[in-house]
Structures are given as structure tokens and as C-alpha cells.
Amino acid sequence: MDRKKKIKKIGIAIKPHAPGIEKILKELMSYLERQGIECLLEEVAARKMNLPGGFPREKLPGLSQALIILGGDGTLLSLAAAAARADIPVIGLNLGRLGFLTEIPVDEALPVLEAFLKDKNGFISQRTLLEVNYKDQTDLCLNDIVLNKGALARMIELLIFINGQEVTRLKGDGLILSSPTGSTAYSLSAGGPIVHPGIETIILTPICPHTLSFRPLLIPANSNIKIKLLTPEEKVYLTIDGQRGQALDKNEIIEVKKSALELKLVTSPWRNYYNLVKEKLGWAE
Predict the structure, then answer these.
(1) Could you report the per-residue pLDDT of 136-174, keeping only the tens digit for each?
(2) What does DSSP assign to residue 194?
(3) Which residues have a catalytic role annotated?
(4) pTM value?
(5) Residues sharing a CB contact under 8 Å with residue 69, sequence separation 6 or more, in sequence order
């Protein structure tokens, strides 16, 4: 999207059960309307405000020039791929608990919006997306692609290829393929590194590997990764951004690479990434 064009339409998606959501939504809409900006509400937000209509969540990015998320990271992840395809910036206001992607606290919402609308430079963070191909489908991922076992406590086996070369077999509970943005999500819990979102890489983090020397691996972002599922009888699931997924069959091949698309994530002008990892994760304290 050309930022030189004045923004006239902003879509708003919400976490419906967040405490005080109606009050925050009302203040936000009032502010935007005073700026001459039309608010496009998703259906559940329109119902919260007792307004007719509203739009299906997945259609909001295509109708808007920017997107506001009122909620937590899960709400933002549900719209990240569509926002990247529409090439519009996303402003995440944190009503959740941790809120690493929706980093802006509610009390900073209006100052951040004002700075954004005045086109101040320097706080749109371009975020790498991963493209995943499986079962004749293509999907986009902001955080991570996870291959893991079902309910039974048995190992699964995955064959990993990078740029056409067989690299290793992984026996364990599964594998996380993460973008730098997703390094602070499931990958971190599984022992992976914190990776600055400006670094071009894909992170491979094993989940409870049978071989203890299988440590997390950072590879160049332009790598092509193929994973072949070798496990015959166990249920193995593919999950994308914790939002979408399905069971896989034996010998299924999953292909992962860096997407040509990026997400424009609006960050606070008053907080940098290092402040964020300290504030949210208690890093180095």
C-alpha cells in the first residue's frame, strides 16, 4: 500500500471476550471518526456496538487500508496472512496476556495511531512470512509451522531435506519451523533461540528429540526445506500459526520456504525490540 495516500478506511477485528472491549472499541471508533476515517467492523465487533452489518473477519483486509487488532497475538495471527496478501499495515493493541505481536498497550493506542496517521517513519516493522506447501495446498505463516504427534506418547520420525540434500532424520515429539518473529513463541518454549525479526533466517527447533545432540538450527532464509513423514501408524498433525492444520499421512511431504510477501507490523515509536523482550519475557533480568 502507498502510505502517501491518506487513509480513509480502517478495519477493526476484536477478541470478543476481552474485558472492557466495548469501552475501548467505542473510544477508538470515536477517535477515528473525528479524523474522517471510516471504521469497518468485523461482524462480532458490530454486534458488540449494537450496529447493523459488519464484515466477515477474513474479508476485512481486502476492504481496508490498514487493520487494527484489539486482542491478543492469536487474533492477529488469524489475520496476518490476509493482511500480507492485501499489503496493508497491522496495528496490534494488546488486550491479551503476553502480547508479543500485539505489543501496543491500550493506554498508548491513540498516540500510536496519531503518529501512524501522520505518517511518521521508522516504526513499521517488516516481518518475514513462511510459505508452506502440503496436500496440494499453499498457506502463509507468520510465526511457525509445527509437526507433532497425537495423544499417544510414542515418537514420530521425520526425514529433513534442505536445498535437495538429506540433512537428518528426526525422532522425537516433532519439529517447529519458525520465522524470526515466531522465535519467541513455541520455538522458545522448546529451547530455541530468541532471534531479532530483522535477521533473515528460518529456525528448525526439535520437540523433545530422541538424540540429545539435535540442537535448534538457524539456516539461511532462502533455503528450501522438505520434510517427509516416515511414521507409519501414529497420528501426526501439521499446525500453522496455531490457527489452522490437519492430520498427515505416511510419506506426506511438507515444503517450507520464505514467502515473497511480508507483514507490515506497526510497532510503538517509544519502545524498541530489546525493551520488548525484557518487558514480555524478563530477558537478561
Answers:
(1) 999 999 999 999 987 776 889 999 999 999 999 999 999
(2) P
(3) 73
(4) 0.92
(5) 13, 14, 75, 76, 79, 90, 91, 92, 93, 102
- Alpha helix (H) ranges present in 95-216? 109-117, 186-189
Q: Would residue 32 count as lying in a domain?
A: yes
- Going from the C-alpha of 226 to that of each of 91, 138, 161, 164, the distances in angstroms are 33, 14, 5, 8
pLDDT in tens, 15-37: 988 888 999 999 999 999 999 99
Same domain for 112 and 186, yes or no, is no
Residues 53 and 162 in one domain: no
Decide if 256 contacts 179 (C-beta within 8 A): no
The answer to whether 204 and 227 have CB atoms below 8 angstroms apart is no
Q: Report the number of distinct structural domains present in the chain.
A: 2
How many Å apart are CA 230 and CA 130, to the nearest integer? 23
Q: What percent of the chain has pLDDT over 70?
A: 95
